[in-house]
Amino acid sequence: MSFTLLLVQILNGLQFGVILFLVAAGLTLVFGVMDFVNLAHGVQYMVGAYLTATAVAATGHFGLGLLVGLAAALVLGLVMEMVLFRHLTRRDHLEQVLATFGVILVATDGVKMIFGPAPIALAVPEALSGSVALMPGLLYPVWRLVIIASGLFVAFLLWFLITRTRIGMLVRAGSTHPEMVSALGVDIDRLFLFVFAFGAMLAGFSGAMAGPILSVEPHMGDTVLILAFVVIVIGGIGSVRGALVASLIVGLVDTLGRAFATDLLRLVVDRSSAAQAGPAIASMAIYLFMAAVLIFKPSGLFTGERATWTK
Amino acid sequence: MTATPSPTLAGRVVAVLLHPASAIVGLALVVVAAQVFGQSFWTTLATRAAILALAALSLGFVLGQGGLVSFGHAAPFGIGAYVVLIAGEAGIRDVFALVPLAFLGAAAFAAPTGALALRTRGVYFIMITLAFAQMAYFVFSALSAYGGDDGMSIVGRATVFGVKLFRNDANLAWLAIGLLAAVSLFLHGTVHARFGHVLRAARDNEARTAALGFSVFRTRLVAHVLAAGFAGIAGALMAEQTGFVSPALMNWHRSGELIVMVVLGGSRRLSGAVLGAIAVVLVEEFLGATTEYWKLGLGLIILAVVAGRVADLGRLVGRRG
């Protein structure tokens, strides 16, 4: 367990956390503003990756393809909201679970029909495909650094939108007092449409950025969705700041746990039982962390400030 | 003539078909017919339907009666299956040991995770049950001694006092149907007992139930653990039927499918889950025979059902945007 390896794993954890943040940010706003369970958010992530991969293949240029993919993800979010989700916002959670689960089944098999069950290729753009030496003996892929940077940029953008703009003010107000906001003449359904589509685009962006390092395949959204749920539970529903902190924690705990649990266990138990128990304990780590948060703060770390950054 | 107010013959036929016992009797008749006509495939299908009906029934109990939308019911189901695998490796194969062990194994998982999840409400509860189920999935995927990701075959089917009774598929079908009937009876009694009334009261008005002096938390936890235990038995039966146990048994899609079964059949009645499970198994079987994309069909059916419910209520209460 050298220092360089530790540093690499910390960067990997940050990069994974950023991917989770991009998915969880939209999800937590949709939960916070509309009290809406969207299981199909992972579908947006997966479809975003597919759309970008297709657009990149068609245009031959990553940046152009990414823009087209993002626009398509945004349009898809708008269409999904208008066709289906807007009719579910004031309904039972059970019905929301059912409908969005139906969307998952249709989308996953639909994508399988069109693109086949095998992963499709999405290459890192040429200029960003190399590695840089962060310090002597530590080479790190540029693309992963780009992911971290773009995630932090989106976090800044969201902070700005939510605290410094009119629409952000409406989102904050709408998440705590929807009746009052709508009594003041704000179209709360349109606000939801905006939040939902923006969240869908962020998830699509996340999928597009993760596509080159993970694989673009029909079930790629599943794991991310459930980890995004863990993030939201830890961070507190509706809190974007909570989502940011919690996703970085989850990303780091999960990555470092998987990298070092077996080695750490070897200090206390013998080699073979460490090899047995290490992976199992590592995969439980984030859930145990979630359980601990639930024991001490049942509604998440950043509660009472729904959809906001500052109290 | 009976004094029941069934005006038409059709109405009476529907009432009989929807009777809680009909579905179970129907499954039993399928097994009998399979024996008579020598169609072993029907036996397999009826066994599978009975097993998933048992799992859906247990979920329908907490979801319908308790109003607790658990999105992690695949976990106790899968744990029940792993109990069969692990006990088999340890030399325990008697059905009278396996069934209680599967119940206890699943309940042992559900008690602490349920106690944590029940500290929360609504959306949180859904996400947390899902997260804990996923934890179980990854833990069993990491157990390399029991096949890890790939899973493992069980040593052999259960025995009864050393007799390899369940080598015969029909006997396994009778075991599954018998357990389904027994659990149905037990839950039917529970629902109509004081416990069931408290559970429903807590679903409808938690504050008032608590004010009446009932412990809502304890009632819900007991219901949650009980449901998990029965799901564990269903999982054990699934392991017996397929002879193979893998983490895929507790994939979160199964949790979703169990919810679909409960809601399609009607969550307010216990028997709804059984009917829903049979319906989904038939859809899986017949759509699956024609296309490999049968889940797309299932998804469209779900969306159609939800759309129907949304439209219906919209008409009843007037449009609410």
Main traits of this protein?
heterodimer, A: 311 residues, mainly alpha, 11 helices, 3% strand, B: 321 residues, ABC transporter involved in vitamin B12 uptake, BtuC, 13 helices, globular, disordered C terminus
Task: Please provide a brief summary of the model.
The complex is a heterodimer of chains A (311) and B (321). With 311 residues, chain A is mainly alpha-helical.
Characterise this structure.
- The complex is a heterodimer of chains A (311) and B (321).
- Chain A is mostly helical and 311 residues long.
- Chain A has a domain at 13-219.
- Chain A is built from eleven helices and two strands, in the order ααααββααααααα.
- Chain A is globular.
- The termini of chain A are far apart.
- By secondary structure, chain B is mostly helical.
- Chain B has one domain: ABC transporter involved in vitamin B12 uptake, BtuC (Orthogonal Bundle), CATH 1.10.3470.
- Helix content of chain B is 74%, strand content 1%.
- Chain B is built from 13 helices and two strands; from the N terminus they run ααααααβααααβααα.
- In chain B, strands 1-2 form a two-stranded antiparallel sheet.
- Chains A and B meet through helix 4, helix 9 and helix 11 of A and helix 6, helix 11 and helix 13 of B.
